[in-house]
Amino acid sequence: MHVTAGSGSPPDHGPCAGIPVDQLEYMRQILDRVGDKWSTLVIAVLDSGPLRYTELQRDIPGISQRMLTRTLQQLCQDGLATRTAYAEVPPRVEYDLTPLGRSLLDIVNALIAWASDHQDEIRAHRAAVNRA
């Protein structure tokens, strides 16, 4: 994208063509959120239905408690997930996808499948570049 600050006009071609300049920053923020590795994995894991925090943490290896908390807060803030607290002893909190979040599942699952299918090829390319 070759839009300079204050240029006042959207790019002539590409995915941002036709998007008003004043909306481009917000579009980038949305893409940052839904394209973030942790958001992608949380959305994919929630495909199976509502889960508790500890279940999410178990099903997403490598995510820290801080990052899971932050990711869930952001997904809820953007209307992609919900947080439901149940008045039980002990208290129970579940996270689930909203219809908006579910609308991302095909894209997220395809991206994860692509990464899985091509990881060996990418690893080989990285190794070749590092050897050069």
Description:
The protein is mainly alpha-helical. It contains six helices and three strands. Strands 1-3-2 form a three-stranded antiparallel beta sheet. A hairpin with a 5-residue loop joins strand 2 and strand 3 (92-97). The longest helix is centred in the last third of the chain and has 27 residues, at 105-131. It is globular.
> What is the global morphology?
globular
The quaternary organization reads as single chain
The ordered H/E elements are HHEHHEEHH
What is the percentage of strand-forming residues? Answer: 5-15%
How many distinct helices? 6
Based on CA atoms alone, the radius of gyration comes out at 19 Å
Poorly predicted runs: 1-6
Structural class: mainly alpha
Major sheet: arrangement of strands: 1-3-2
Mean pLDDT across the residues is 90
Helix content: 55-70%
First and last CA, distance: 30 Å
- The beta-strand count equals 3
The largest pleated sheet is described as: 3 strands, antiparallel
Which helices and strands appear, and what pairs or packs with what?
Elements: H1 21-35, H2 37-45, E1 51-52, H3 53-59, H4 65-77, E2 81-86, E3 92-97, H5 99-102, H6 105-131
Antiparallel strand pairs: 1-3, 2-3
Helix pairs in contact: 2-6
